[in-house]
Amino acid sequence: xxxxxxxxxxxxxxxxxxxxxxxxxxxxxxxxxxxxxxxxxxxxxxxxxxxxxxxxxxxxxxxxxxxxxxxxxxxxxxxxxxxxxxxxxxxxxxxxxxxxxxxxxxxxxxxxxxxxxxxxxxxxxxxxxxxxxxxxxxxxxxxxxxxxxxxxxxxxxxxxxxxxxxxxxxxxxxxxxxxxxxxxxxxxxxxxxxxxxxxxxxxxxxxxxxxxxxxxxxxxxxxxxxxxxxxxxxxxxxxxxxxxxxxxxxxxxxxxxxxxxxxxxxxxxxxxxxxxxxx
Length: 279
Known about the structure:
Elements: E1 21-25, H1 38-44, E2 49-52, H2 63-76, E3 79-84, H3 104-121, E4 125-127, H4 139-159, E5 163-167, H5 182-192, E6 197-202, H6 203-208, H7 213-219, E7 224-229, H8 245-254, E8 260-263
Parallel strand pairs: 1-2, 1-8, 2-3, 3-4, 4-5, 5-6, 6-7, 7-8
Helix pairs in contact: 1-2, 3-4, 4-5, 7-8
């Protein structure tokens, strides 16, 4: 018997998904494959969308690297749902450069590169990781720089038909992350005030911060541009942890959420292709 694509087997595997669209984060899933093969792997698993963290160490990829990435998405016939701006050196502990006063030129160079890729892949969401505090630099200055940089990014993204996302990240996993609640994320969005900046609700981070996830989804639904899922405490697939996702999916559908839900979880020992059974 032929394998049933993930999108077609949601009713047979127990969790109803209420018409929501799911995409695969190919920076955390299918990492056993070279990056250029991951969009096709997601397509083969039955998904019509993918998302990526910034795929390169440099703020702007070479022309050849950018072409290879764009071709891998377009040739696979999937939508690039979301792309992160450069986060700095994640291996060294960096988690974004948006709020780093000394790296504004670097961030804005990255914005230009990301917006060009977004335009060529029809990607409409660009996620802007805020970044950790910079020791010895006034906090108010860092926050002011973040607002200025996000406004710049929103202006550039808007010209390509894209929006900028602000995400709250839990400070249990990332100690000291300054935007560690939904309220703080929305406060940043309001300070920027651009029409194309909105909230990325990562249900893993919200739950790990102890927030009432259903309340957050309801309260901020007008600002909600993207959703991501993983199950705390281990960041595994839904059903491996403490969150009951089905009522949340039902709520999103009932609210008329028309975006995507990104699968941004660790696949487990059986590998990425075997991690979609929860659907």
